[in-house]
Amino acid sequence: MKSLILARGGSKGVPRKNIKDLYGKPLIWYPIEAAKNTKWISNVFVSTDDEEIADIASSCGAQVIMRPDELAGDSALDVDAFRHFCKKEYINEPLVHLRATTPMIDPKVLDEAIIQFKENKDNYTSLRSAHESSESAFKFYIRGDKYWNPISSIMADKPRQECPSTYIPNGYIDIVKPSQFMKNDFYGDKIYPFITKVTQEIDTLDDFEYIEYLMKKNV
Length: 219
Fold this sequence. Notes:
The model has no long low-confidence stretch (mean pLDDT about 95). The chain contains six helices and eleven strands. A seven-stranded mixed sheet has the order 5-4-1-6-10-7-11, sandwiched between helices. It has a two-stranded antiparallel sheet with strand order 2-3. Strands 8-9 form a two-stranded antiparallel ribbon. The protein is of the alpha/beta class. The two termini are about 30 Å apart. The protein has one domain (about 1-130, about 170-215): Spore Coat Polysaccharide Biosynthesis Protein SpsA, Chain A. Helices cover about 25% and strands about 25% of the residues.
């Protein structure tokens, strides 16, 4: 299978996030290296609008696909970048979607997800990884204009043990089908649930510091 990593240059939360140093390596090195060490991923591609990211991704061993600026803005959708890639490379097979923002991934876990999807791919439109949330989302509230609005008015006051478990998509690995997303939405309505351990994602400078701490501790 082929893997695609999206890495635009215009990150605002953490400028130049995708190539910022994390424990001695640029952030994007981690998913590229993990993919290279799997048994089932044959090619690693990086889609970017940024020449510096392209050079670093290439030096890490990825093949680079340059995408136009209109597919790399703040409002750009992943599905549009995937469609651009598939049209440019004439790809019809399922693709492994990895993210630079989820650096602590194990090649063996990636292979496990790929095997599970390959064995069941005719029954699913995609695979998406997630980990169990520490508190059920059925206990959460949405902030209204004046009041808290419970996500579930039935479960909001129930004991935690009575609430269904809920899961947080974590970017560890997704597998998507061009036959699905070239014509419809990205994941479809039959998503294979692949459950991982709690996985840290990087969105802020504090996340960089915390994940570097975990790496030093070899967690």
